[in-house]
Q: What sequence folds into this?
């Protein structure tokens, strides 16, 4: 009888820069697995007969297959397997919330030691890049069909990558001067180095996608004008319009939306000023309002800019924090102070219009609300003030209304997201137009945006050619 494999419950830790050093630099925090660590981690996989990890992945990565190849030392095979279904493995390996997706479904999760799928994915992608040769996929013969993709974030990149491989001619239009969406302008260098985003964009260009920057659809040309030139259009314009608290004092100097704060830092490289042209003020005490990934990124950025005190002000408790646990722990290690059950109610300025204090109220948790989380309830007469030099509002975003405003027959929902007639395909109310990613779901995650892009690409291909791609979504990229 075959001997039962002994479970290895030691998840290999990610090597990182020590907190006291990394809190003052913008270099990547996580250093990546070595080959030895990757082999040891991959060998922990028990190769379940029914691998549930795949169910947790919105782009259907064959996780056991790529992990097994790493365990066998076949790194080329591992990256090939990954790229069958994921055109952005270096990014997903870094920023996907694996703890609530594939890793949450891992059988070893019950033993509190799931396979570190994201770390292995990142390892395979970085290993390939380090070899200096990136393998190109097989391409189908040209179909003569023309596709416009609006927005160059993960949703748009996935649509462009999938459709060009299927033989269609793809042009991607991006409003900003660099492509990549939130991966470029939002997620900071210390979590996702921009050379990696550029590397992935180079790959998309090498596939033949024409990337046109500084092109705002709705201003440079309308959606209807694009439809005169293209057979189909995909809208992947994200959710880049920041929400505000709408409390007194939000217009004071020193109060930023997270969107502006992070764009100045990432896209405009404000941290390198005066070597870069866009300055960013370095504040001593910074409060960040919110509890998601955007709030963590803003707080950790403020810390790296030299702030002495950085606070996350969050109206619920630690249990309800929507940010990835790993990033919360990183922020804590770097010295960010969390003020839970605290609601900002007023921002107070000095005589010159600069922020000098924030006034907050203490909260307690009541009954669960529509989101299923316990509702924060104000405690009367619990106001208190904190001296503060800057505040960053990171409480959420919604889609920019520009394209719907100049396209009356494109239906939108009450919350400003584009309405799709079929969530499985992303088809919109307008003929020959599909949409996906944050512009449809509201602010979500990279992998969900990619999953939506994959589904839309399949549907657009079927519309263009009449061919229904067989099997799972993954076959869009494997038919090559
Ligand atoms: P986006 O990435 O927003 O890209 C849309 C693109 O469209 C943008 O480049 C925009 O300039 C362009 N565009 C908009 N309007 C037009 C127009 N009219 N014409 C032309 N171009 C236009 N998710 C995770 O999974 N893990 C994380 O750790 C994580 N951290 C995050 C941190 C921050 C700071 C932020 C802001 C988000 C984070 N997210 C994270 C969420 C994730 O980045 C998004 O869900 C994802 O990028 C959405 O992809 P998308 O393609 O729909 O849109």
A:
């Amino acid at each position: 009888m075959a001997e039962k494999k002994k479970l290895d419950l030691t998840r290999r830790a990610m090597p990182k820069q020590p907190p006291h050093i990394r809190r003052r630099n913008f270099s990547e925090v996580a250093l990546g697995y070595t080959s030895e660590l990757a082999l040891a981690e991959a060998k922990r996989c028990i190769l379940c007969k029914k691998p549930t990890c795949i169910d947790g992945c919105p782009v259907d990565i064959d996780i056991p297959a790529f992990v097994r190849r790493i365990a066998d030392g076949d790194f080329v095979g591992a990256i090939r397997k990954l790229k069958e279904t994921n055109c952005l493995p270096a990014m997903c390996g870094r920023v996907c919330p694996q703890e609530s997706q594939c890793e949450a479904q891992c059988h070893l999760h019950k033993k509190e030691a799931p396979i570190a799928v994201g770390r292995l994915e990142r390892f395979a992608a970085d290993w390939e890049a380090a070899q200096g040769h990136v393998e190109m996929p097989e391409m189908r013969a040209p179909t003569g069909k023309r596709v416009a993709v609006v927005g160059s974030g993960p949703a748009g990149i996935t649509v462009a990558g999938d459709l060009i491989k299927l033989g269609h001619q793809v042009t991607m239009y991006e409003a900003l001067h660099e492509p990549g969406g939130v991966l470029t302008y939002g997620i900071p260098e210390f979590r996702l180095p921009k050379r990696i985003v550029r590397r992935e964009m180079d790959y998309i260009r090498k596939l033949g996608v024409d990337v046109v920057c500084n092109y705002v659809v709705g201003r440079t040309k309308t959606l209807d004008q694009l439809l005169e030139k293209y057979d189909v259009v995909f809208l992947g314009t994200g959710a880049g319009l920041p929400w505000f608290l709408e409390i007194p004092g939000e217009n004071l100097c020193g109060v930023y939306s997270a969107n502006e704060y992070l764009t100045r830092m990432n896209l405009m490289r404000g941290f390198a000023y005066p070597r870069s042209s866009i300055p960013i003020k370095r504040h001593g005490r910074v409060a960040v309002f919110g509890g998601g990934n955007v709030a963590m990124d803003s707080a950790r950025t403020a810390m790296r800019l030299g702030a002495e005190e950085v606070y996350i002000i969050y109206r619920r408790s630690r249990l309800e924090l929507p940010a990835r646990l790993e990033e919360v722990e990183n922020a804590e290690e770097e010295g960010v102070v969390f003020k839970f059950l605290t609601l900002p109610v007023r921002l107070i300025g000095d005589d010159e219009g600069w922020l000098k204090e924030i006034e907050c109220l203490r909260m307690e948790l009541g009954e669960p609300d529509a989101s299923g989380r316990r509702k924060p309830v104000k405690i009367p007469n619990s106001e208190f003030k904190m001296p503060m030099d800057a505040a960053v509002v990171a409480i959420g975003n919604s889609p920019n209304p520009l394209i719907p405003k100049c396209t009356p027959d494109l239906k939108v929902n009450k919350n400003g997201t584009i309405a799709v007639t079929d969530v499985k395909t992303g088809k919109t109310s307008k003929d020959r137009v599909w949409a996906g990613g944050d512009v449809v779901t509201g602010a979500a995650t990279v992998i969900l945006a990619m999953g939506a892009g994959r589904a839309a690409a399949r549907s657009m291909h079927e519309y263009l050619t009449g061919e229904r791609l067989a099997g799972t979504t993954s076959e869009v990229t494997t038919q090559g």
User: Anything to note?
Assistant: The radius of gyration is 23 Å. The mean pLDDT is 92. The longest strand covers residues 355-368. The chain has 18 helices and 18 strands.
